[in-house]
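User: Structure please.
Assistant: Input sequence and predicted structure:
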Amino acid sequence: MEKEKIRIWAKRVFGNISLGKSLGIQMLAVSVIIAGLGFISLYANRTIEKQANESNLKILSMTIDKIEEQILATENQMAGYLTGRRSELVEIGKNTANREYLYAILDREMKNDFSANNWIQAVMLYNKVENRMVTYRKAEFSQLSEVRDYNLQIVSGTETPSNQWFARKLGDKIYFIRTMKTLGYYLTVYLDGTAFLGTIENDKNSPFDLLFFTDENRGAVGDAALSENVKKQIGRFDQELIYNGPREPYTVIGSSSPRTGLCLVGLLYKSFLQKNIAALQILLMIFMLLAVLYVTGWSLFNRKTLVDPVGKLVKAMEEVEKGNLRVKVEEDGYYQEFRCLNYQFNRMVSEIEKLKIDIYEEQINRQNSELKFLQLQINPHFFLNALNILYTLALTKQTDKIKDLVAHLMKHSRFMLKARNEKIAVEEELKHIDNFIEIQRIRYTYPIMFEREGTQALEECRIPPMLLYTFVENSVKYGLVEEAEGVHITLRIEKREEEGRAEYYFCIRDRGPGYAKEVLPDLNSGDTILDRRGEEHYGVANVVQRLSILYHGEANIKFGNAEGGGAQVEIRLPAGG
């Protein structure tokens, strides 16, 4: 009975008080004991030091990120130069008469491609077979001889070219160096690493006493005098380093770019307080012993008011992790923060349960979409028509056409049976379309023309199966105007840059009567998928639904009529999606 009265009294006193005020009252009793800790707060010093080191690490990481952006842009320039000049590089080895003219083109295009990049100090294209070098350098660049000599070491094998960027000091400057090799040529770019360091060293708010880059072996590039222990720490760190050895007079902080291989290291000299942490720890222990008795009683109280409620909440979270979304916690406690927290937890669990139901319904819809796709793979009309053609050819004893048709039908069936919702290469889809066109040419007496436009290499482009085939099939079905003229279908494929993002563009058009004007608004709104005559078309509907699911709304499809007549379908897919 007495315990119950005490509980009721405690709840009445502390029930409406906030957690912050309660902790403030409790800490007031111990403030006299720990007052002396204010000027020797080792923990606070370590915390601040840790936060400062992490902040300094972020500075290095941000610098590395900026360097990486510039380097990746330079890599794209290098790849673009080698790709754009591929014909000249090949022709030099074949055509001796125009060799000097071709080298002049390489020299001119090198200036055009790399002069806008202010960080590039030198670019060298070396033909190892002819021992010929094409060079671009900044007008104020004064170390051409050192760089040229080092470049010869790279191409001669004395200095092994790295697949990544690396830092090297040549003369009195530091450079970021990268070599690309193609067709017997070495393209090497030298970026001004000293200028990157200068952006930090010239900053008045820079915390670092010394900055340097490391080479591919994590050795310091420059004149930094480091102890063996520090060299060991730098040599084995991966992406981030904060080394605060007690015997070292400085803190070592490093950040590297896994993508480019470059690493930036900064040194900060320690203060007097940082060097005498051991002595301060002894003083701290003396003061902490005085607080033991208070902490013991304080811990018992906090166990009841803080630990137990938190424990109940943790157990409830563990139940949620196991999948039990029916768990609830009591919306009660000594502190109003816990009451609010428990209420929000119960509300969150209810929202998760609702979200889980929504996700399950979305999965069901996706499965239904996949089922429609599989159903569309087995087109009874297509195979009935094929059998009818075979029968007609057999009656007329056209055995050669029968052989060709059977071979094409085998390829068609093999593709249809293995096709799923996984993405396939564009070339694989185009082979299936070519095979389909050959079947139609056997079936119909009028000509069927299929042309492909766009010369870009799209080996990395992958699309959902049947994406282009569906619209080519529609053009064969509806694109005929007169039998004498036949069916003309054009497929254009491009890789474009639209508003800062890469995308793949596909355009299928024919010369038929096109879409009826009253059908186009419904088609482009996405509400109803119709064919050119205004009837529902499940093949097109399936394509639109699969694009929405696979690309999360980032894909775009537009139906229309070409300017010269005929239907036109434009599809845009995000690159890398």
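Residues 362 and 368 are 10 Å apart (CA to CA).
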